[in-house]
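Budget justification, computational time. The allocation requested in the original proposal was used primarily to generate structure tokens for proteins on the priority list. As evidence of use, we reproduce two of the resulting records. The first is shown immediately below.
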Amino acid sequence: MVTSQHSDIDVVVKKILQVSKQGQKEYITKVKVISQLRHRNLVRLLGWSHDRGQFMLVYEFMQNGSLDSHLFSKNCALTWDMRYKICLGLVNALDYLHKNWEQCMVHQDIKTANVILDSKFNVKLGDFRLAELMDHDLGPPTTDLA
């Protein structure tokens, strides 16, 4: 976690270790698209950098970490109400990505490590590195099942 010098916002800086030359242009395009996503149940990408082949992504910091750290701990304190709230938040995020954004975005890497929890255990879906964009009318019918 890093605290910004220009504001009181805590952020997480994620360093992407390897991006091939061929994938750099595609990756930059994807990051630009992801930085435009705005929904209460998506981890917000605040900034990014690609300098000398190093890619860094700056995200908002989530106080309660990932869902897997809670589910797989011996002292799991997630009540059924909290679990229901988490499921609802995840469904809202997927509905936005699949139906309500400019293009249909398919995340392709939904797992408990990518489900992040804020200070009030509101869910935010993160890590869009594998996401794919497609036109709404060309999207697979499985996106309607989420």
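The second record produced under the same allocation is shown here.
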Amino acid sequence: MRKRFICLLSGGIDSIVAAWFASRYGDIVFVHIDNEHFLPRGTRERVLELAKVLSALLKKKLKLYFVKNGQNIKTIIANAPRKSTCVLCRRTMYRIAEEIARREHAYGIVTGESLAQVASQTLYNLVAESYDISVPILRPLFGLDKEEIVVYAKQIGTYNISCTREKGCYGSRGRFVCCFATPKYPETHASVEFVKSVEKELNIDIKGTVDSAEVLIVGE
């Protein structure tokens, strides 16, 4: 029996490549965490287009969850140190993916993260963000640099879609920052203790967030 993986899909270069790697070893279910007004317009359409490309490549229909996360980010910004926004947002993403993994009977959560790809993706942060997640978090691209990932993106036909630069994004060579909630100086040395203490205060309703998700079948 083939394993099932929950693949976080952001619309960027990395996550769709990670999903492609995962698809070689099991069935995949996409989850897009929709940060709503903290993301530029066009993100949803780009995510759909990427999912369609992989669906065609794999010659199968794929499930895609759109999970609204804007209110959760507002809660984080209002109640936690500003520099910790990225850590706590990513932590929330993992918890959402964990809940969907339970419902989908999935073996693991697949992300497009690689070490130090962006300022907040440090080993300290990855450990703190992953704390107590009951489903394995798999990072197929962990040891690759951006140039290596781009080669794979071009190979599977997703590079040009992922590189569509929306209004409000900044950066170059595919390293765009397209989240308006990103602090100027993000936390790079988060601790498990910090995440545990702040998370209790935030009291984010993960099950309620997932209950309100929109679920599509791509490739019909």
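A brief technical remark on that second record: Residues 12 and 162 are 5 Å apart (CA to CA).
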